[in-house]
Specification:
The complex is a heterodimer. By secondary structure, chain A is mainly α. Chain A has helices at 4-19, 22-56, 70-77, 97-102, 115-120, 136-160, 182-213, 215-219, 223-228, 233-269, 285-312, 316-335, 354-365, 370-395, 398-401, 410-415, 424-440, 442-445, 450-472, 477-480, 488-512, 516-536, 539-570, 572-585, 590-610, 613-631, 648-667, 672-678; strands at residues 59-64, 82-86, 107-110, 128-131. In chain A, strand 1, helix 3 (70-77) and strand 2 form a beta-alpha-beta unit. Chain B is an alpha/beta fold. Chain B is 37% helix and 26% strand. Chain B has helices at 45-52, 74-80, 96-106, 111-124, 140-151, 170-185, 197-203, 221-228, 233-242; strands at residues 2-13, 17-29, 34-38, 60-65, 68-69, 81-84, 158-162, 189-194, 206-211, 214-219.
């Protein structure tokens, strides 16, 4: 229950309080307005004068073997911006390297013996340009020398071509025409830069108000007073959150506007000449407004995150320390906008921060759908709510709020290491880490051989992050990953349930695949799998790499850390459902997502009830293996007559056996009760 | 009005392990009384008051304020009490009038009434000259007055004051003491923690002397003096303190 009047009272007070703070005004208004023009003026002045100097200055050129090409040397001498030194006849190319390294010479032209003869024979001769890439002067000198050599080469060509018609030397010429509207191309390049800045600005803007409102309130001694008032903790959190988000949004918009105005002014005036060369800076006003869309979820998320960390900290200083990693993460995520070739999709929409960066790129290039916008909004809102819930839980903790907390106690941490239980936050971090790795590291693995690809993908992307997160969060491995002996009855029933579920769910898939929405992607997915199978070789290898390995790694992640975390905070059934959904979404292909989600829920229930990860690993492996064996055509024809889908009698049997098997599974005792009993005592890391 | 029964609050301390800040405290404070909690620093006064005001949850025991349990009905308790904590601060960038207004709004006082309340509190605590100056520019005493006015904005039936006069000059102390007397006459219940004996002697109807989280004695000032055969409360306190059961074990003062 949240009473709006109280939220608004708190919001109003926080706004007044912040707006009277000189630091807020400075960060919110003065910095955004002044920093870009100042930076640009300084940068362009220095750049212009420096470039000017490098372009017009004299460079020293050493010619080795000048006698071999008197014509070329003569040509160089017509340009008085060279200081030409001719090396003593007979000296070799490397002799002038020392002055080149020391900067006494800027570029060395080496003419080989026989140059003249080659020229006279109307063949192609090679001269060598030695330069020092580590020096700016040498680079500029190389550029000038290259032009001079090309110039001379063109002169010789003209002589050789005498009497031939125009265009003799270029029989075919390609004329390239870009049909993209100018605002799209500029939007494409600009979008990447803008997306990066958008993420950074959103993070930076929430920084100060969040620190002031939570850790600042503690430090000033007003927190206790506020907590004793009848305002609920949730009202306090929401009121403060609204204030942080408002200030942050205003600051971020001002940053962007100031940046936009400055850059467009700069491009119009300073680079006006470059316009003819195709460099334009034009975004339609509608696109400019669209860019503000991703700003909303970014703002909601960063405000919640910063407020939570700030509430967790004891003092201003500590809050700064906690917020620094947020800034680093924002930085790294924002750079992902610059990575070429990442297409926006629904899986990407689930990765916080990065989704907003990529959405900005998509919006500015004009290549986007409302579904992408909605998915990004929805996922960001969920993360923001989780962060707010965490903030609220901090406001419930008297030790964090008032006692000043204890300093980090290494001894205690080491002693209690491995005793924590995962919560919703841990589960989300694990899923997000897996998704982010799939999208970033995944594509770079593609070039590998099939065996290595499967190993790397399963171990590096799926199992390892879960293990690392569990170690960092000091989780109890045994209970988190359900490392317990299984009831033999459960193990015996696992294959039955796996095969029946496979039969029923593939029948469902067969019925659904006729919908156009599913068909194309599902077929492509199938083809890709078959390719991997072929590359792996024989059936035993296929079964090890494509049935057993994924079963172990995926269960470790999903029915291990993810299910344990979700179940703790969401409850048994919502936990199973959410875990199944995550498991499905990780498979990306729409039809597969649906089928796998359902199977994931069955696995979740089995893992929870039996209390042993071994049971869900076996079930998962048998499911994978049956599917692969069926695809390899090792199953009698009467079982799978119709395009590889099960026959009706088989489906009927499965439909009868599955409920019976589940009932028997339910009746057999698992070690779940033990886990339930242990829930209360340990500390949560949500 | 206030009833504390077998209250215990245990904190986890890294060096000392489990520490009971309050250990089996029991007392009752009826309406129309000023109840003094007397004790040295670290006796458990502040912890007790924080539990009374719902900031801390008791480890065990039962505490009610006007019949409302502090654990089960904290929102009703918060509405009923005015709490001035020992190290309370003010919002430096708000004015005294805004401070009072902010908390008044959180207590759900209607705007029209709140304005009158702001004016009368500013008059009562003689803050007219700086009512519209931001608190950051005020002196310590002025800030304390703002805090007191803020705590009383909803005219609470129960007033909890944690060492309210510490750091105040006698002029401002007098304003506060006068207010407490008037509140008592108006039938309110005031819980007053202090280590200044003279103040307690003048103001409190009943006094509980506590040390190490336990009650050493309770009664009217006259009763305590008689019980210990002391000429004044200060002397009575020292005798009780030196004679406490585990005097040798923990040196708190």
């Amino acid at each position: 229950m949240i009473r709006l009047p109280n939220v608004l009272t708190i919001f109003r007070k926080e706004m007044i309080d912040l707006l009277r703070d000189r630091r807020t005004i400075f960060g919110m208004v003065v910095v955004p307005i002044l920093i870009y023009p100042l930076l640009l003026i300084m940068f362009s002045q220095v750049l212009a004068s420096q470039t000017e100097r490098l372009m017009t200055r004299k460079y020293s050129l050493v010619v080795v073997g000048a006698l071999n090409a008197p014509g070329l040397v003569e040509h160089l001498k017509t340009d008085d911006s060279w200081e030409i030194t001719e090396a003593a006849p007979g000296s070799d190319a490397a002799s002038s390297d020392t002055p080149l390294l020391e900067g006494a010479a800027h570029v060395v032209l080496v003419v080989p013996a026989g140059f003249l003869e080659t020229m006279q024979a109307e063949k192609s001769a090679t001269v060598e340009l030695r330069f020092n890439k580590a020096k700016d002067e040498s680079n500029f000198a190389l550029h000038r020398a290259r032009e001079a050599v090309e110039d001379y080469s063109a002169q010789v060509l003209r002589i050789r071509l005498q009497g031939k018609p125009d265009g003799f030397e270029r029989p075919v010429v390609a004329d390239e025409n870009d049909i993209a509207p100018p605002e799209r191309t500029s939007g494409f390049h600009l979008g990447r830069l803008l997306a990066m800045l958008l993420v950074l600005m959103s993070a930076v803007s929430a920084f100060y108000p969040a620190i002031d409102m939570a850790s600042g309130e503690k430090e000033r001694g007003t927190m206790e007073t506020l907590l004793v008032s009848p305002a609920l903790r949730s009202e306090i959190v929401f009121g403060k959150y609204l204030a942080v988000a408002t200030i942050a949004a205003f600051t971020a918009v001002l940053h962007l506007t100031s940046m936009g105005v400055t850059f467009s002014y700069f491009f119009k005036n300073t680079l006006g000449a470059a316009k003819g060369a195709g460099l334009t800076f034009s975004i339609r006003p509608s696109s400019a407004l669209l860019v503000l869309l991703p700003l909303i979820p970014l703002n909601l998320l960063f405000s919640a995150l910063c407020l939570g960390l700030s509430a967790f900290a004891r003092s201003y200083k500590e809050a700064m320390v906690y917020l620094t990693p947020v800034m680093i993460v924002a930085n790294v995520a924002s750079f992902s906008a610059l990575v070429p070739g990442i297409e926006f999709n629904y899986a990407l929409a689930l990765i916080p921060i990065q989704n907003c960066a990529m959405l900005t790129v998509a919006l500015l290039s004009g290549d986007w759908k409302w579904g992408h916008v909605l998915a990004t909004f929805a996922s960001s809102s969920v993360y923001a709510l989780v962060a707010l819930r965490w903030t609220w839980s901090i406001f419930q903790r008297e030790d964090v709020l008032l006692r000043g907390g204890a300093d980090f106690d290494w001894k205690r941490w080491l002693k209690t290491w491995g005793s924590a239980r995962p919560g919703l936050g841990t589960a989300l971090v694990a899923v997000i880490a897996m998704m982010a790795l799939t999208l970033t590291v995944g594509p770079t693995l593609q070039g590998m051989k099939a065996h290595r690809l499967m190993l790397a993908h399963q171990l590096l992307i799926i199992a390892l992050p879960a293990g690392i997160i569990a170690m960092l969060a000091s989780l109890n491995f045994r209970s988190t990953f359900r490392i317990r002996a299984a009831n033999p009855v459960h193990l015996a029933l696992a294959p039955v349930i796996a095969v029946c579920a496979l039969v029923l769910l593939t029948t469902l898939a067969a019925w659904l695949v006729d919908f156009a929405f599913f068909k194309k992607s599902a077929l492509e997915h199938g083809e890709k799998l078959i390719e991997t199978q072929k590359a792996l070789g024989g059936l035993p290898t296929i079964l090890v790499f494509m049935a057993l390995l994924p079963a172990v790694c995926e269960e470790f992640l999903f029915r291990g850390i993810v299910l344990s975390g979700l179940r703790r905070d969401l409850g048994r059934w919502a936990g199973i459902a959410a875990c199944g959904a995550f498991f499905g979404v990780a498979h990306q292909v729409p039809l597969v997502v649906l089928i796998v989600s359902l199977f994931g829920m069955i696995l979740g229930w089995m893992a929870l009830h039996s209390g042993s990860l071994l049971v869900s690993v076996v079930t998962h492996a048998i499911w994978n293996a049956s599917l692969l064996i069926a695809q390899a055509g090792k199953v009698p024809r009467w079982l799978l007559p119709d395009k590889g889908f099960p026959a009706w009698p088989v489906v009927t049997v499965a439909a009868l056996v599955l409920p019976a098997a589940i009932w028997a599974f339910h009746r057999a005792r698992g070690s779940d009760e033990e886990e339930l009993a242990g829930d209360g005592g340990a500390t949560s890391i949500s | 009005m206030i009833s504390v029964h077998e209250l215990r609050k245990v904190f986890h301390d890294r060096k000392r392990g489990e520490v009971a800040a309050v250990d089996g405290l029991t007392f009752d404070a009826p309406a129309g009384t000023v109840f003094g909690l007397l004790g040295p620093n670290g006796a458990g006064k502040t912890t007790t008051l924080r539990i009374l005001s719902t900031v801390f949850r008791p480890t065990s025991g039962r505490v009610t304020v006007m019949g409302h349990d502090v654990v089960r009905e904290p929102h009703l308790v918060r509405k009923a009490i005015g709490f001035l904590s020992g190290d309370t601060g003010v919002y430096e960038r708000l004015t005294p009038r805004e401070m009072i207004g902010y908390f008044g709004a959180l207590y759900g006082i209607p705007p029209a009434l709140l304005k009158d309340r702001q004016d009368s509190l500013i008059r009562e605590f003689e803050m007219e000259s700086y009512a519209d100056t931001t608190c950051g520019k005020l002196s310590t005493g002025m800030k304390k007055k703002v805090s007191i006015a803020r705590a009383l904005v909803h005219d609470p039936k129960v007033i909890i004051l944690d060492e309210p006069t510490s750091g105040l000059d006698i002029l401002i102390s007098r304003v506060l003491v006068d207010y407490v007397k008037r509140a008592k006459e108006a039938g309110k219940c005031v819980i007053y923690s202090t280590h200044v004996m003279a103040e307690a002697e003048k103001l409190c109807d009943r006094v509980a002397i506590i040390a190490d989280g336990r009650k050493l004695a309770e009664g009217t000032v006259a009763e305590l003096k008689e019980q210990t055969g002391s000429p004044d409360l200060e002397d009575a306190f020292f005798r009780l303190f030196d004679a406490r059961p585990d005097a040798g074990k923990a040196a708190t003062a």
